[in-house]
Design a protein that fits this description.
CATH class of the largest domain: Mainly Beta
Number of domains: 2
CATH topology of the largest domain: Immunoglobulin-like
Helix content: 10-25%
Order of helices and strands: HEEEEEEEEEEEEHH
Strand order of the largest sheet: 1-2-3-9-8-11-12-6
Distance between the termini: 95 Å
Number of helices: 3
Shape: elongated
């Protein structure tokens, strides 16, 4: 009986630790949801204009189509109506931590103007938010170090948005493009020169000894496939 009571207490403690809910934050061992909103209307919205279901994947495989990028969402842009309710299914296809954050939202509905989904590894979360009527482009990104810089960045437009954000993969140019410098050392120059000389030599030898090489090839072919 004593062991059962101890186990029950420990279970309650673990539930409290691993499934904490503080105001706008819900967190467990899988991940975290912050500032979800299913029914509170923005001040400039008399009603919800549309319900939009969006599935967003995050992972390394989605960055393969973007040169120099390591992480990405499977889609880089969404466009919805003013006062739309968005039901997001966020799926992490990697075994590492990824986030989906939307910034610039009204602070009276979303503390610090932020909507936040986070997965500690592979899995999925679902949460909703309601957007104001303002024609605006919102930043969607992962705030983990170097994840956004390495490609995990997108934009959410309301009513066509108020322009493209910079550095959205496949959509807009970066503020500062990546520059991959070449180390033009003596060894690098020597390697290039030697490679050129070898290539030129091979071409010249092929031209000079073309007849002999052809004859040799014919002899080898005859031995392999003798005529009957």
């Amino acid at each position: 009986m004593k062991q059962f009571l101890i186990g029950l207490v420990m279970f309650s403690v673990f539930q409290t630790v691993f499934a904490m809910e503080h105001g706008g934050m819900l967190m467990d061992e899988k991940g975290m949801i912050m500032n979800a909103n299913t029914d509170r209307l923005p001040r400039d919205c008399p009603q919800i204009s549309e319900n939009v279901d969006i599935t967003i994947h995050a992972g390394q495989q989605y960055a393969e189509k973007f040169t120099g990028k390591m992480f990405a969402f499977d889609t880089q842009e969404w466009d919805v109506k003013p006062c739309a309710k968005i039901n997001i299914t966020f799926i992490n296809d990697d075994q590492i931590r990824h986030q989906l954050m939307i910034h610039g939202l009204p602070g009276y509905l979303y503390p610090e103007g932020m909507f936040h989904l986070e997965l500690n590894g592979a899995g999925q979360l679902q949460a909703s938010l309601i957007l104001p009527s303002q024609k605006k482009t919102y930043l969607v990104h992962c705030e983990l170090p170097q994840h956004m810089e390495k490609g995990m960045k997108a934009q959410l437009k309301v009513d066509g948005g108020d322009g493209d954000l910079p550095s959205i993969p496949g959509i807009s140019a970066p503020i500062k493009a990546d520059l991959y410098k070449t180390d033009w050392s003596q060894l690098a120059w020597a390697t290039i020169i030697i490679s050129i000389l070898i290539g030129v030599s091979f071409v010249l030898i092929t031209i000079i000894y073309a007849d002999k090489l052809t004859s040799l090839a014919d002899k080898i072919t005859t031995k392999i496939n003798p005529k009957k």
